[in-house]
Amino acid sequence: MIPTSYYLLLGAIIFIIGALGVLTRRSALIIFMCVEMMLNSVNLTLIALSRQWGNLNGQIFVFMIMAVAAAEVAVGLAIVISHNRHTNTTNIDEINLLKW
Fold first, then answer.
1. Does 77 fall in a domain?
2. pTM exceeding 0.90
3. What span, in angstroms and rounded, lies between the C-alpha atoms of 10 and 7?
């Protein structure tokens, strides 16, 4: 049996990689993928702790996080596609639609 601390360490590493990706990348699509990595690392942590403590609360939270993540991806990709149609780029440095 694999100890819970391994899952927690893996979740922390995945979260750090996702956070570094959000802070350093300029493409909106890659930033969305890094945010999804961060959400999945939180899901892994909740599942590991739920298994260790022997209750289903963490798994219920994971289900809610997955539903919110799906809605976030749908709205985010719609915004990126709309912006890409007008400017032909997904670079976040060139998004200045609200600066009229």
1. yes
2. no
3. 5
Helix axes 57-87, 28-53, angle to 10 degrees: 180
First-to-last CA distance in the chain?
58
Task: Domain count for the chain, please give it.
Answer: 1
Domain assignment of residue 93, yes or no: no
Q: What are the tens digits of pLDDT across the range 36-67?
A: 999 999 999 999 999 888 888 889 999 999 99
Are the CB atoms for 21 and 32 separated by under 8 Å?
no
For helices 28-53 and 4-24, the axis angle rounded to 10 degrees is: 160
CA separation for the pair 71, 58 (Å, rounded): 20
Q: Contact, 40 vs 70, CB < 8 A? A: no
Domain of residue 22, CATH code: 1.10.287.3510
